[in-house]
Amino acid sequence: MYRILEKEATSSVKKAIQNLGWEEITEIKFEEPPNPSMGDLATSVAFQLAGQLKKSPVEIAQNLKEVIELKSPFERVEATGPYLNFYLDYESFSKMVLELVGEDYGSLEDKNEKIILEHTSANPNGPLHIGHVRNAIIGDSMARVLRSAGFQVETQYYVNDMGRQIAMIVWGLQNLDYKMDTSEKPDVEIGKLYFQVNQALKENPEIKDQVSAILKVYEEENQAELEDMFKGVVGKCLEGIEDTSQRLHITHDRFVWESQFVRDGTVTQILETLKDHTSQNDVLYLDLTSYGIEKELILTRSDGTSLYTTRDLAYHLQKSDESDVVVDVLGSDHKLAIDQLKIALGLLEGKSPEVIFYEFITLPEGSMSTRRGVFISVDQLMDEAFQRALQELEERRPELSESLKKEIAEIIGIGAIRYFIARLSPEKHLVFKWDEALSFERGCASIQYAHARACKLLEKAGDVDLSQVKIDDLNLQDLDTLEVDLLKTIARFTSVIEHAAMDLRVHSVAQYALEVAGAFNKFYKSVPVIGSEKELLRLLLVDKSRIIIKNSLDLLGIEAPLSM
Question: Which of 444, 355, 376, 350 has the alpha carbon at shortest distance from 139?
């Protein structure tokens, strides 16, 4: 909706500039003024024009105001200092909002552009742990936002099945007397074996050479038995990872195994293409000093086997060929590696990826037990969230059946994890705090509770069929301030989606979800609905709020419960 308002206001300003004979401005930015008395939309376009016109921004704003022609739903425009402030006609604006917001509101027009978004891509040597969860949640939420913004999005998980860590696990299967517990999750069992191999390595460093030998045979000789062992290890681990991901509402459209780029000759072709740029001593490498990077990019080991970097180049070339835009979600410790990769991709004529870097997530010391290992798995994190949410429900809603309490607790617990991580800009270090994450006053639960409130109020209204209500028959004059605030907040949804997609940031969506829930809660607590003179209008406002809250949470991969 605000996208429409911005387009209308932009059109009016551009036409005014044209009528005045001034040079056209490509982009005119709008913002919401901090005070409603200053209008509903404002632009500082006068500052942009000041340079070319050699006039003061105040004079320019006044000139524009005098010739500007407004369209509905704007009522008037004022020049306040250097700013142009646009004021809405709330009657026509309200009608527009109520007519536009339907169940699928937030789905923007098709951009006819394909994005491949890679996220999670954890090494398949154990279960997903807390170090992976921020990557997965940012990536999945970003994919949802981009799809809503009109992009065709394919999410991919890059499977590191040729790495040293997998070779270590294969060595463990060959040399350690380890039997996997079939009753346990397979990724957990693989993680236990990996831990045992690391212990063996500490006691006997010569094992490292044996692991290297396994890796060399696997890459160069392609033995069927060894191939089956590698793929078996990785496949079992991925089973467990997928189970964990699904509980967290995370899915991948495609799993791309790095071994394909060795087997199909792509890695060999890349090394051949780069040969005029590479140097050789003990290893094959790209010297990047002429690009301002002191650290060289190593392409092969001393024994001639390829590295993750080389195979990652091949993977990025494939993504380049299959999409218009490549997006990676990576920890901030990968910044140097990405700088190196981008230079090599440039030499190979591949697309440079857009990268969402994130800082790491930690738990306050002592906030959670590490009973089952040396790290905290995502499964443990979700179990803990469920138990804490269940305990909260036991106190708040003791009358609910046990099965319903467990169902709601799972929705609240998963929502708490996803929202707490999504709500913060990825550049900021995140400490996961349970009391904040599960707060019914300011966390995700407060947003979910607002949705449940709206559902309960609509249920209480009985047989009213809101789909049959004619907007033109409603009295949209003299709206209450809280009604206007709620309508304006609802109207911002599509603009929030568009900007989040443009910026490749999901925290703005999370913040918006909290804002719309807050605007609804203020309305709910202060404005009578059922039995009031404006019952139909206000029930429509409740229903539109329900839709926006639900759709906002869906962009974050969070369920909106009907009851809490």
Answer: 355
Beta strands in 81-131 (DSSP E): 83-88, 114-118
Q: What distance separates the 2 farthest-apart alpha carbons in the chain?
A: 86
At 177, is the pLDDT very low, low, confident or very high (cuts 50, 70, 90)?
Answer: confident
Assess whether pLDDT exceeds 90 at residue 90. yes
Answer whether 184's CB lies under 8 Å from 172's CB. Answer: no
The reply to whether the predicted model has a pTM over 0.85 is: yes
pLDDT digits (tens, 9 = 90+) for 387-421: 999 999 999 999 999 999 999 999 999 999 999 99
For residues 101 and 94, the answer to whether their CB atoms sit within 8 Å is no
* Calpha distance 168→212 (Å, rounded): 9
pLDDT tens track for 327-364:
999 999 999 999 999 999 999 999 999 999 999 888 88
What is the rounded distance in angstroms from the CA atom of residue 174 to the CA atom of residue 168? 10
User: How is residue 107 written in tokens?
Assistant: 């789905």
Q: Where are the domains of the chain?
A: 2-88, 162-242, 378-555
pLDDT(182) > 90: no
Give the type of residue at 425: S
Task: Give the whole-angstrom CA distance, residue 275 versus residue 270.
Answer: 9
CA 388, CA 409: separation in Å to the nearest integer? 8
Superfamily of structural domain 378-555: Isoleucyl-tRNA Synthetase; Domain 1 (1.10.730.10)
Assigned superfamily of 2-88? Arginyl tRNA synthetase N-terminal domain (3.30.1360.70)
What is the crossing angle of helices 535-555 and 444-460, to 10°?
150
* Residue 506 to residue 68: CA distance in whole angstroms: 36
